[in-house]
Amino acid sequence: MRTVTLLLLVSCLVAACAKPMTLSDFRFRCRFADSSSGSFDNLSGCNYQLQENVCREYANVLSQQYLSRDECIQGCRNVQRSFSLQATPMGCQSYLNRTRTICEQYCRQNYQ
């Protein structure tokens, strides 16, 4: 029992030391975002150019400084909204949702 308690304590300490996502990490995760949700989206329908534009726009939003986490998250949601009409007919709404989630994760890790 004592060993288990010690292992749990060490695990919690290590998890607390995790570094926040960097902009470079975000760019990688955005470019290779895949929604394995079993949706009807066709990732191949999300052409390379659209994916590049989406990731570039998110990176532009994240490269700005915000006063709060909520402002950063709102920036992510604005990007999703701006590409939504373009992405839906191509069958890649799920990709857009997934990349927004990654953007919001960046905000949550980098702003209090």
UniProtKB/TrEMBL annotation:
Highest taxon above the source species: Bacteria
Signal sequence region: 1-18
Entry keyword set: Signal
Protein name, UniProt field: Uncharacterized protein
